[in-house]
Amino acid sequence: MMSDVAKDRTAHSEKKKGSVSPVRCHEFRRRELHGRIKDCLSTVSYMDEPSLRDDASRRTVQMENTYQLGPTKHFPVVIVNHILKDVLTNYLQEEQYEPELCRQMTKTISEVIKAQVKDLMIPRYKLIVIVHIGQLNSQSILIASRCLWNPKSDTFSSYVFRNSSLFALANVYAVYFE
């Protein structure tokens, strides 16, 4: 006859293996309750335990090696330049510089650009979209970025927009994922 501790360990190891259903009944015999020996039936639900939810979220797709060293389709810089121009012009043509509005606009514009570039379905490229918006007030600004990449397959696209009160710089970096 197994002790309660041994039953708990067995049930825990079965649960980890995935052989236990989400709702499982454990029968514990001869449990002491306030000095009395009593038979008890306990129902335990494992649905609320974080370990069961985390296993499902941690599963990743295993992909076969393609032994492909370079892109089959290069990143279309010209098309992305047109996307940058269209999005910045549509969103900022009539806008005046306001710090809070521009903060939200940078997030919105970068998400729109990223979605439109992803719609081109260029395989195996990771995209980084950065948008800067600032006030035009007779000042100068230098914006620089540095990346470690392969010049044969990795590239970028950039566009600068200006109106009467603000400027915007949008960069899309395309890094080939080998």
Q: How does this model look, in words?
A:
The protein is of the alpha+beta class and 178 residues long. It has 4 helices and 5 strands. It has a 3-stranded antiparallel sheet with strand order 3-5-4, covered by helices on one side. Residues 16-34 and 40-49 have low confidence and may be disordered.
List the helices and strands and how they pair.
Blueprint (H helix, E strand, L loop, with lengths): L3 H14 L5 E11 L2 E10 L4 H9 L18 H16 L6 H20 L6 E11 L19 E8 L3 E11 L2
Antiparallel strand pairs: 1-2, 3-5, 4-5
List its traits.
178 residues; alpha+beta; 3-stranded antiparallel sheet; two-stranded antiparallel ribbon; 4 helices
The chain-level mean pLDDT equals 78
Structure summary, number of beta strands:
5
- Order of neighbouring strands in the sheet with most strands: 3-5-4
Radius of gyration, in angstroms, nearest whole number? 29 Å
Q: What are the low-pLDDT stretches, counting only 5+ consecutive residues below 50?
A: 16-34, 40-49
First and last CA, distance: 57 Å
The arrangement of helices and strands along the chain is HEEHHHEEE
Largest sheet: 3 strands, antiparallel
Work out the strand percent. Answer: 25-35%
Query: Which overall shape is indicated by the principal axes computed on the Cα atoms?
Result: globular
Structural class: alpha+beta
- Put simply, the count of helices is 4
Helix content: 25-40%
